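Tokens in:
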């Protein structure tokens, strides 16, 4: 049950009553969930990710980072009221290894000291425990500096059926020394072929888990695009195995520093968290980055970035004025 502050209760003309609600759990009535894409509806980079041998983390579903040794897929095995879940599959051989999903919350959004409650839906037929880890960090990735001792690290028992789990912890200071508050859910000793399903992950102020906040799809996309955006739009990655994707195109314009300049730059739909890393992809050969198709042949491309709002210039070598160039792009400003 949530704690609701009521300023007044008034009678209505129909004989009922109307309550003027001031807050829920001492927080906002809307925008309670501090996490983005908590129900895994946005997948701009793709919907399946094979496991890899290299270490470190990578982003899969928007805003969620997962170790590279874990296979990731969008799943429709979900609890009632949800559309998608994230499937984590520890595929690699070589002994037990953590498989987790993590998100970093910008420290500017952690404004209050006191109690916070994390809630999530989970199920697994392979493991019986998930670990909740909250840290003050420089980045979400495993290699990021841990600026303080672990804020909380709690083991929660789960079953093979969908259920909701909650964990309340206390932040003693709102002044984080790192870049973000890192929320991680997973298992620290997963073995090969272990699987875990998660969805409906919510972090809010207070000691009680309210019902999952459901934003509109468009609102969720814009929140994700503050950290990552491509010309392909949500759930349509810029890279595919066969190159069967559409692309942005423009005509080659004037000379700029003895190099032809694409006449169309890139204006982002959402202002980025910081100046992003921009990558140009060949739409016909997606294994080739930093190249584009121009009149049927590949040309080397250099992007000059304009900051948080645009990639202002895209240079293409070996073209003639009036040629057209096609390319895909992505801009990443993740924590």
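Residues out:
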């Amino acid at each position: 049950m949530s704690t609701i502050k009521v300023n007044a209760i008034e009678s209505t003309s129909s004989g009922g009553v109307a309550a003027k609600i001031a807050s829920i759990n001492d927080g906002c009535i809307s925008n309670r969930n501090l996490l983005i894409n908590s129900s895994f509806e946005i997948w701009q980079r793709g919907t399946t990710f094979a496991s890899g041998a290299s270490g470190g983390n990578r982003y899969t579903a928007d805003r969620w980072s997962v170790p590279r040794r874990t296979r990731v897929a969008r799943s429709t095995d979900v609890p009632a009221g949800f559309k998608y879940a994230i499937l984590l599959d520890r595929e690699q051989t070589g002994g037990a290894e953590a498989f987790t999903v993590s998100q970093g919350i910008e420290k500017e959004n952690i404004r209050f000291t006191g109690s916070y409650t994390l809630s999530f839906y989970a199920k697994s037929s392979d493991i019986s425990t998930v670990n909740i880890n909250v840290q003050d960090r420089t980045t979400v990735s495993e290699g990021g500096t841990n600026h303080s001792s672990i804020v909380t690290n709690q083991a929660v028992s789960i079953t093979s059926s969908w259920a909701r789990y909650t964990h309340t912890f206390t932040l003693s200071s709102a002044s984080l020394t790192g870049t973000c508050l890192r929320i991680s859910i997973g298992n620290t000793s997963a073995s090969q072929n272990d699987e875990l399903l998660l969805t409906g992950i919510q972090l809010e102020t207070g000691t009680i888990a309210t019902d999952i906040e459901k934003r509109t799809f468009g609102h969720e996309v814009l929140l994700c695009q503050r950290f990552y955006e491509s010309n392909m739009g949500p759930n349509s990655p810029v890279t595919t195995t066969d190159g069967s994707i559409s692309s942005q195109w423009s005509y080659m314009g004037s000379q700029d520093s003895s190099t032809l300049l694409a006449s169309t730059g890139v204006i982002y739909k959402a202002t980025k968290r910081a100046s992003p890393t921009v990558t140009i992809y060949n739409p016909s050969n997606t294994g080739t980055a930093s190249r584009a198709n121009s009149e049927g042949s590949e040309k080397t491309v250099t992007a000059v970035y304009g900051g948080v709002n645009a990639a202002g210039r895209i240079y293409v070598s070996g073209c003639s004025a009036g040629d057209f160039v096609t390319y895909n792009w992505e801009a990443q400003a993740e924590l």
